[in-house]
């Protein structure tokens, strides 16, 4: 008789395997002084350099609470990954801009992430990937993420 399958357990298993695999990568050394969140935020800022990005955008894109983002951005600024620049139209608003340190880190991270994605997607068809991502969207919705 087959054991019941649990989504949460499978996600946990995959997460553990990813962490273990990441622990052996060159990118791990790069990220030791930061957290995974820094990498995703830096990536978002770099990929949207032609737009004005604010704290509220990071909160929305990553489904994070205001206090979490505020603390993370303070540390990122202190460590030299971002600058907060006042906007002329509203002195209270500060747009987030990646520093050269962040740009360099992002380039190295992208190389590593591309290698990892190739490994993860090996032998999986485009149709299977589309179904997988659709299921993940539904799971996020089921546990309370707003679309």
In a few lines, what is going on in this structure?
Helix content is 65%, strand content 10%.
Strand order of the largest sheet: 1-2
Shape: globular
Assign the structural class, choosing from mainly alpha, mainly beta, alpha/beta, alpha+beta, or little secondary structure.
mainly alpha
Distance between the termini: 38 Å
Word description of this protein:
- This protein is mostly helical and 147 residues long.
- 12% of the residues are buried.
- Helices cover 65% and strands 10% of the residues.
- The chain has a two-stranded antiparallel ribbon.
- Helix 3 crosses helix 6 (100-121) and helix 4 packs across helix 5 (66-78).
- The protein contains seven helices and two strands; from the N terminus they run αααααββαα.
SSE diagram, text form:
Elements: H1 7-23, H2 26-31, H3 36-47, H4 55-62, H5 66-78, E1 82-87, E2 90-98, H6 100-121, H7 126-142
Antiparallel strand pairs: 1-2
Helix pairs in contact: 3-6, 4-5
What features would you highlight for this structure?
single chain, 147 residues, mainly alpha, two-stranded antiparallel ribbon, 2 strands, globular
């Amino acid at each position: 008789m087959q054991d019941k399958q649990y989504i949460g357990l499978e996600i946990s298993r995959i997460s553990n395997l990813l962490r273990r695999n990441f622990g052996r990568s060159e990118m791990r050394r790069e990220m030791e002084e930061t957290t995974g969140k820094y990498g995703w935020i830096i990536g978002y800022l770099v990929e949207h350099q032609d737009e004005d990005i604010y704290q509220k955008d990071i909160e929305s894109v990553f489904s994070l609470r205001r206090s979490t983002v505020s603390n993370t951005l303070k540390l990122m600024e202190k460590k030299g990954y971002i600058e907060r620049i006042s906007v002329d139209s509203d002195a209270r608003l500060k747009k987030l801009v990646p520093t050269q340190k962040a740009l360099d880190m992002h380039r190295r991270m992208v190389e590593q992430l591309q290698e990892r994605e190739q490994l993860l997607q090996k032998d999986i068809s485009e149709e299977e990937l589309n179904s997988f991502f659709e299921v993940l969207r539904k799971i996020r919705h089921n546990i309370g993420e707003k679309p």
